[in-house]
Amino acid sequence: MRSQRIGRRFDPVHLHQIHFTRKGLLVRMTQAVLQHGQTSIKPRIMLVDDEEFFRKTICELLASEGIDVVTAVGANECLQLLRCGFRGVILMDVVMHGMDGWSTIREIEKAGLLKGNIISMLTALDVPDDRMEGLQEVVIDYITKPFEPSDFIASVRKYLALLDQLKGTI
Amino acid sequence: MPGCDLVMIGSSTGGLKVLEELLPCLPVLKAAVVIIQHITPDVDQSVATSLAKVSKMPVSLAQHGTNIRSGQVYLAPGGIHLTLVRNSVVHLHEGEKVNSVRPSVDVAMKSVTAPSGTRIIGIILTGMGSDGAAGISYIKQLGGITIAQDQKTSVIYGMPRAAAETGCIDFILSTERIADKITAFFG
After folding, report:
1. Quick one: which of B185, B136, B142, B186 has its CA closest to B162?
2. How much is the pTM?
3. Domains of chain A by start residue, with CATH
C-alpha cells in the first residue's frame, strides 16, 4: 500500500487524538506518519462517513491511486479538521448517526469554513431529499453507492483538478 | 441589435460532469452558449477554467456589461443573478435567491426575448429542485426549442423532471443526444 501522509497544517498530535481511538487503516496510516515524520504533504481529500467498512474501502481505493486521504467519523471530526486547516475535497456521506451530511454542511457554512473546499455527497440514497434544498450551490456532485471504482476515481480526480484551480488556493 | 442566437443551459449538482461531457461534443456554434450552473463564487472561475479545457469554443466567466457573441460560452458567476439585456448584454445583479439559489436558471431564462429571426434553445440538465422549470416554460412560450436531460444520464433527476412535468419540453435526451440536437440547430 502506498504511504498516506498527513501535513503539519493538520496538527499531527490532534489528528492522532482523533484517529487513535479507532481501529482500521487510518490509525495505521496516522501512526506511520507520526513515526516517519512525513509532515510535508497534506491530504486533499476528507472522507466523512460513520461506517468503518466504507471508510476503509475508500481509503484503500484512494491509496491505491496514490491519493492522500484523511477521514472523519462524523460532523464533529469534520469540523475539527476544517478548523485545523483542512482545505480540499470533502466526500460527505448523507445518512450518518447523529448529524447527517446535509446538517453537517450547514454547520460548516455557519462556521465560515466552506471557502476553499469542494463538497461531493456519497450516498446510498438514489434521490436526494428536500434537506438538500438550498445547498445546490455548495454540493458540486452526488455519487450514489454502490459505484464503479474507476468512475469514483475519475470523479475524485476531477474534483482535485477543480481544487487546483480554486481562487485563492491555500 | 436583436442579439445572436442563444443556447441557454441550466444545471446544478452533477452539472460539471455533464457539461464536461457535453461541451467537447459541440463544434464552434453559430450561437452563444450561456450556462447557469448553481455554484458558489469560490469555485466559479475554476469551473470556467475546467470547461475551457474541454470545449472547442472559448469559455469565460460572464462579466457585467459583456456583449455576448456567437461561438462563445459564458458561465454565470456564483452568488449573483445573470440576466440578458436584449439577448446580447450580460447584466449581473444582486437580489434575493430564487428557488433557494443564486444564480437562478429561472431568472436568466426569463430575461430572454424573442426578436424576429432569433433562435433559442433552452436546456435543463441534472440537479436538485425545480429551478429552471418556469424559465424553460417561458422559453417555450417564446417559440424556442426546449430540452431536458433524461433520467439515465442525470446525476440527479430533479430539475429535468420538474422541467418535463411542465409539459413544455420538446425533447428528453441523453447528454450525447443533447449535443447532437444543439449541433443540428447551430452547428
Report:
1. B136
2. 0.86
3. 42-164 (3.40.50.2300)
